[in-house]
Each structure stands twice: as C-alpha cells, then as structure tokens.
Here is the input.
Amino acid sequence: MQMHRFRMERSPLGRLGIAGLVLLLTAGGAGLAVLHAQAPAAPAVARATVNDIRIRGNRNTPSENIKNQMRTRVGKDFSAETLQEDVRTLYNSRSFARVWADKEDDGKGGVVVIINVREFPSLVRSVEYRGNTHLSKDELDNVTNVRKGMPCNPYANKVACQRIVQRYNEDGRPYAACNLIKGDDENDTEVIFNITEGPKVYISSIDFTGNTFVTGAVLKQRINSSSMLLGDYGLRLMGQYNPGLLEHDVNELIRYYRGFGFHDVRISRQVIYAPDSRSVRVVFHIQEGIRYKVDGTPQVTGSKSIAAEALEAMNKQKSGEYYDQRTIDGDISRISDYYGYTGRQTRVMPEASFMKEKPGFVRVNYQVEEQKPAVAGQVIIVGNERTDQRVILRQIPIYPGQTLTYPDLRLAERNLARLNIFESSPDGSVRPTVTVRDNPFNPDSNVKDIVVNVQEASTGSLMFGLGVNSDSGFTGSVVLNERNFDLFRPATSLEDLFSGGAWRGAGQELRIEAVPGTQLQRYMVTFREPFLFDSPYSMTLSGYYYQRYFNEYHEDRLGARATIGRKLNDRWSASVTTRAESVGVSNVSFFAPEVYRSVSGDNFLVGVRAGVTRDSRDSVLRPTDGSLLDVSYEQCFGDRVFPLVNFEYSQYWTMLQRADGSGRQVLAFHTQTGWAGSNTPVFERYFGGGFRSIRGFQFRGVGPQENGFKTGGTFMLLNSLEYQVPLRASDQVFLVGFVDSGTVATRIQDFNDYRVSVGFGLRFTVPMLGPVPIALDFGFPVVSGQYDNKQVFNFWMGFTR
Here is the structure.
C-alpha cells in the first residue's frame, strides 16, 4: 500500500511578527501555512476513484462539517490538486492548528483519503473590545470575524487586530492602534482587543506637481482620496486621510499615465501635516517622462486558422501615433471576437518592446494563442432563487449544439446586467457572469457547458421625488416599482408573502406612479412584459388619469394604453400602440374661440399609432455621439376622426475633448416636425414655446391665436442647435449655447412667423439628487410673432430618492 501526504502547518516564518503574518495571509491565502509534499508523488492511478474519506483528530468539529467544506467527494475521481486545495480550505477555516491529508490505495483500484486535523485546545467564550467609541461592537465583529464558540486561534486574532487598524484608517484615523490583551495564546478562552482610535485627520488640499499632460483637476478624478469641503468654515465634510488609500492612488495614477504612453512615469506622494496634526496637505510629485509613440503597425503572431493579415487589418493602433491603452484594448477585443465567432477561445497578449535605437518609440505586437473550435453543451444556471430560468435563458443567445460563440458570452452578461434584477457592484466585482466549463469527465472534448452565475437583488423600490420647472410648476412624485414581477405567482402562504417570493420571478415590471402638482397631476399604473409568450415581442399595458391646468381651460384625461413592441436589432425597434381616452375639457370661458367651446365637456378618443425608432446614441442622459430617430403615424377615431404624423430626429457630434478623452464638447442638433388633420381637436394640436421647445418663449406661448386665446396649430416645425462645453474636470457642470427656431401654424406652407431665439444656459449634475441634470436656460427672442408670449428664463430641476 502506498501513501502520499499533503500537509498544512504553522511555519517558523510566523515568528517574524505581524507584518510578516499579514503579508503571508495576503499573498498566499493560507495564513502561516506551508504546503509540504512529504514524499515524491508516485504515478497516479488512472481515474482512481475515491472510495472513502476518513476524518481523524476532530473532537469539537463534526466529521460531516469537515467533509462539506471539501471538493473531494466519495465516488469522484481522485485529484491531488483538489486535495491540496481542500487542505488549504480547511486550514483557512481557522478551526484547526494543523491539517494534513494522506492518500492510501485500498487495493481495489480506488483510494482512501484520510484527513488529519489538530484542533485548537480552547474555544472562545467571549469577545470584548476596549477603547472603541466610534465603531460599535457589531461593526467590529464584522471586521474581525471572531465569534463566541469559535476555536481560539492566536494567529487569526492578531490578523483581526490589524484589520481593526485598517478599518479605522479607512475612517480617517491614521493614529489608530490595536493590541491583544487576551487571545494571543491558544489556551485562552477570552479574546480582548485593546483599541486606541486616535483623532480623525482630514485632507485639507490635494496638489500635483510636474503634470503637463492634463490638469490637476482632471487627475483628481482618477484618485479616490479627496480634500474636505467647507473646511475654512468649520464644516469638515468628506476628505478623510487614509494612508492605504494614498498608496492605491499612486498606483492608479501610474496606471493612468502608462495607459497613454508615459511608460517611464514616476509618481511619489508627500504628506505635509498641519501644526495641530488634525489635517494634512497631500502633494503628488509627477515625473511624466516622454510619451511613447508606436513604431510600425502592430503585427499579429501565432495565428493558425486565420491569416495574420486579416487580423492586422482590424487594428486601430497605427504607426506613428501615441501609444493608447484604450486603442490597444480595442484591438485585442476585435481579434478575440473574430476568433470567438468561429468557436475558438483565444488569448491575445500585447507585447511591447522598447527600442534603444529609437528613443521614444515602442513596438507593439499581438501574440495569439488559439484553441480548437468548441460547441455549446448544457446551460447551467446557479443562484436564481426567485427568478424563473426562462427569464435568464432568453438573455443568452447561445443554444446547446451550436458553435460556442464566445463574444455572445459577454453579450449575455450585459443582457443580464441590463435586466437590473441581479446584484451588480460599481467596480464589477459582483455581477452576473457567464463562463465556459470543460467536461469534467473528458476535458479534451470540444463540447463545453455554459455556467451562468447570478445573485438575486432587491428588485422592489419605493421612490419619492420633487420637481419644479418653468413649464409645469411644482410637482411631487411617489413611485412604487417592481422590476421582477410575476403576474401569475400569487402568495401561497403568509411566509411566501412576507419573504418576498410572491408576485416575483417572471422578469415583468409593475410600476405605480403618483405625481401630484400645482399645474399638473398624473396617476398611472403600468405593467410590462418584455418577452410576450417568450417571443421577441414586448407588451406594455397602462391605465392613467391626467389633469392639467392651462390658461385657456382645464383638461382631464382618463384612459388606457396598450403597446406591442419589437426590437429589430441593436438600433432599430418598432411598436404599435392603441389608446382609449375620455378627455374632459372644463373651465372654458363663454367668449373663448369655437375650437374650445366645441370640445367643452367629455370627449371620447381612440387612437392607433405605428412607430419606428432608431437609436445609436452612446448615452441616454448625455449623448456625445450618435443619433435618435423617431417616426410615427397615429389614426384617431371617436367623436372626431383625424390623423397625427410626427417626425423627430437628434444628432450629436463630439467636437473637442481633453487629451485623455474626457471633457467632451458636444454639438447637438434636434429637429421635430408634426402634422395633424384639419379636424383635430384643440387638446391634440401643437403648441410651441418652453424648455423643451423654443426657449425664450413661454410654455405654449408660440402659435396661432384668436381673441387672446392660443388655439394651437396643425403643423409644427422646431429646430435647435446647441453647443455644450464642460466647465469642470468632473464633467458635471456644463455651459451651453443654443439657437432655437421654429413655427406653429395652421398650414404647412405658412412660414410668415418663423421664430428664432438665441441664448445660453448651465447644466448641473448633482449625484445625490439623481442622474438628470439641473437645467437653467436664458433665451432671447430674435424673431418673434406679434402675439407671442416671451419668457427669458426657463429651468428644470428635481430630485428622486
């Protein structure tokens, strides 16, 4: 019988002190542990099966608990690598002072795995923190992970002490210290942490020296440290000093500079304490060095199935241009995708070589390591506790048996993230993932399973908001929204109702919205099924009540709307909408024009609308490139029969930007045309003026009028040209200049009163108020109609929490 041993035990390196302890834990993940191979491994029995797993030395920890932490299983093929990982996992559980494993042949063609453990002699009966005033015991418990009933592990307790110091550092307390009063001996039954918190230290200012590539304000956007706000007024907001964060900032700045070709950049940081040691001034000293250019067109090597010339033709990094990591990454992505669509998972590695004979130039090549074409096997979904599998499967454009197109794996990840029903962190550490798994019984097989890992997120939200603008006055909002609704899954019990399982899981959306206001009120319930009967068609149903006070009359609408939509491709979509409304017109003056008096009272309206939309914008909130086109035709029936035709188009161009691609100055063009039949009632006609129309004029202040009443038009043409310039490095404050023009008339050929206004404005994005910027515009009419109502100042602001 042969025996092979795998062992984890304390290393003499542990006596080097806490610094060495933390370094080992960080680098190796195994604490004060060394993996020893006690004897040269004999050739493994081909596909030897694990017939038994035996646990020895455990008194306090049940054997089943130990086995549950292992990947080695009875009945599975034996793997020395897996067993080594199991030993490491058990040791890192902090339950054992020593762990080692033996493997014995059982003489029947299988193996017996023996797990030997030495437990710590004492259990923790109490955990105490002394000196803590700014962090509670519960917060510190989450930092240390030392709990009552756990084995007393002196080494883990010392590491916990360092974690406490790190946590206080993160809160801006660089003088924090911690030592163990009890818990540094494995025979202790108490763990007592003695904490010195120290005062908070703030960063009074952050400065940069030696930077010429971009300004210091731009570099501040690349680091996580920040200076305090309103420090001169006694209010110290933000800006805590964290020494560890500064080191991260230095590395981030180096990475930033190297990404733009400054491969020789050197950056150091200087911390200057104030006399009272309560604040510091941070200075980053930068030696940029030369900015490297690319020598020659990047070449592709190692490609076998695809000609190198075809791959090189896709490269955007050109000879003589500055080295740009964004362009390099784009080249790598295009080459990988080209291979990926053929079913080949390919690793593309950029190789940069600096040329002594040509200072300031770098030669870039792409080394390709391609694999054999793969075929998709099963799709395995993990983590969907509430969400139906079909909700996830329809976001994955790969089916079993087809070529495994690797770019579609990333597309599937984006699709799942876009659903907004699974956990996603800003840094990307937590997100839906779609990966490929080899066949464990035949790793060389070209059939690869697809594993989807998701983590359910809280999908219900209750939002409150306030808004004010020059068109609609003051409004409030209360919105109840469920993004993972299931219309056909009612509660089966009280536990099901209160646990959050009822009415959830089908990927539908339910939105209940109430918007009371001074001039406008809107109440709406909307249900949306994004994949009707698992087809590519969507369905949206809504019921609503709308009330608006105009100068000429009061309008009430009670209605319902149904929309069937289809996304044709990444840019094009089409929809058909039917609406049925009861429109109430009241408070009409007895001397009002006939167009108002004729619709006074209740009006029944049914409309059928067909529309097509093309959207290539790079952002919905602040586009800098691309366009938006929307064309629709609606035929209305009911008390009156009339058509509505609308055309809307927007185009965005980036004119200038900073050297690093931020700070884009954008030229935006917008045009809107509408035509309505002659029998169109006044409440469906076009009016001009206001924030989203022709600035410099009042809301509904442009158009035909009769006896002082705005009667609206059956034809509208609006044009706007706007230029946006960022004023701050954060790209959250913009200056805009604009020229608005247009007309609202009763006939298409009537351009006698074509209005023109010019003006300027500001846009503020305040993250705590929501993603939509505050807009302040000053418009000055240059050409106006005789009866137009002018208004220089237009604005919009609001917040949602």
In short: The two ends are 69 Å apart (CA to CA). DSSP finds 13 helices and 38 strands in the chain. Residues 70 and 86 are 5 Å apart (CA to CA).
